[in-house]
Amino acid sequence: MATPVKDRRATNDPLWLRVLLVGISVAFIGVLLVLPLVAVFVEALRGGLASYFANITHPAALRAIRLTLLAAVIAVPLNLLFGVMASWAIAKFEFRGKSLLITLVDLPFAVSPVISGLIYVLLFGMQGLFGKTLAAWDLEIIFAVPGVVLATVFVTFPFVARELIPLMQEQGDEEEQAALSLGASGLQTFWRVTIPNIKWGLLYGVILCNARAMGEFGAVSVVAGHRGRTNTIPLHVELLYNEFNAPAAFAVASILALLGLVTLAAKTFLEWKVQSQLREPLEPATAEA
Amino acid sequence: MRLVLKQHSVLPGFGLTLGYTLLYLSLIVLIPLGALFARSAAMPVADFWRTVTEPRVLAAYRLTFGASLVGATINAVFGFIVAWSLVRYRFPGRKLLDSLVDLPFALPTAVSGIALTAIFAQTGWLGQYLEPLGIKAAFSQLGVTIALTFIGLPFVVRTLQPALEELNAEIEEAAASLGASRWQTFWRVILPTVSPALLTGFALAFARALGEYGSVVFISGNMPLKTEIASLMIIMKLDQYKYAEATAIAAVMLVASFAILLAINALQWWIGRGRLKGI
């Protein structure tokens, strides 16, 4: 437990060291992290506002935006449903193999983006396991929209679950038990007791899930191929960049950078909300270490 | 119900939620991943070996592991300084700096990739000053390292922060009262206490760097034998419809990252035991 100590002369660093270390931190983060972000917007606006808007409203850019939104609209709700289901089973019940299950839920984070795409090519690609069957039925998954959606679902798989599992474990099930003993049905208990308790954590998971869904590059690049037919926003950025159309590439990239900034702001706000929600229902006497 | 031994609970929905979880997990993750291993296991050993020891593939492995290691090491050093500053000091803009650490998580990798390239290219904001010094930052192995450092920083900072916050001031005070200098206290007391967290952050940054693709492919320049990374080799084999070879290259990378994940879990378990013994 961290106890705030007001006077710690023995543990305080001298002023010169504090200034030096803060200076190094600011310089390192400034050069390595902030400068690239600034560069995106500067390069995007280099040709003026008119050409910037022309670049992001180009039909091909709009097509890419539409596909990205479609992939996110499918992947996020699917993983949200999974996250709620998995965290209910894992946090509210004790069963054998639970820690293995938690590890397996996190598994997609350990798989690199390109390999995440590869596994679906191996299943549904032309020489894949189901390739012949799909061809016979005239179904396309790889190099088509379903492949993009599948890869997006895979890379964003753990986000909601890994946020909710520790949150619900910490909150316990006493409130749900109380609701049930007062005659509420299972679903009523879930909607009226559990959901209000986890809403900020849920939103946090959804926002991170959405950011990754819209920004994923490697996995989607593998399943979409290089034909330009199934371009998401990140793939469209690559295409423009490789065609030496840097201003357009950065203009389209600025949409994603903006999304990243919004995500960052929301993340900071929600982290604070989740922390205060965790502290609220737990009285010191009932809090388990 | 012999496989899943559940303790009695009054809450409903166990069967439904666990069943759904297992079904969805199998369909999306386990079966596709299993297919990859089945596919590489079905490959004759000689073919597998020939693929993963191809000079171009070997060079890619060497660069990927080497640059990831260097990037993770740089992050261990600077990540420690950043985490220490954020936890220990109060200065204007601290909250903002804290939020900015997550930038590599929030920024899509393709965006970071082209932005880093723009900055470090010969005519770029920083590249133009490095060029006269004879430093070729973009389209070189250095560029790959820069990109892998960029994406790894949050892992080190975010694992170190809670460990530094938990650090007991009394131990430091005790060391100081026993006559240790601040420097001695750091090396003998602080660093050993937080080293499991530092190691975990390092391993996470390293594992992430091994599989990174988007932020690297633009700045690397992708020159055969020189600046190609392992992820790119997988994509190239796929583009040539050499599925088996792509799978072999991927299997090696996957085993490496699973091994690191296992090591991290063991480390966490070890930290957990340390905590129980009463730090």
Number of strands of chain B: 0
Q: Multimeric state of these chains?
A: heterodimer
CATH topology of chain B: MetI-like fold
Any idea of the CATH class of the largest domain in chain A? Mainly Alpha
Report helical residue fraction of chain B.
Answer: over 70%
Low-pLDDT ranges of chain B: none
Explained architecture:
The complex is a heterodimer of chains A (289) and B (279). Mean pLDDT of chain A is 89; it is low at 1-7 and 282-289. Chain A is mainly alpha-helical and 289 residues long. In chain A, 75% of the residues lie in helices and 0% in strands. Chain A has 13 helices and no strands. Chain A folds into 2 domains: 17-46; 49-279, MetI-like fold (Orthogonal Bundle). With 279 residues, chain B is mainly alpha-helical. Chain B has one domain: MetI-like (MetI-like fold, Orthogonal Bundle), CATH 1.10.3720.10. Chain B is built from 13 helices and no strands. In chain B, helix 8 (141-166) runs antiparallel to helix 11 (214-220). The longest helix of chain B is centred in the N-terminal third of the chain and has 34 residues, at 55-88. The model of chain B has no long low-confidence stretch (mean pLDDT 90). The chains are: A mainly alpha (289), B mainly alpha (279).
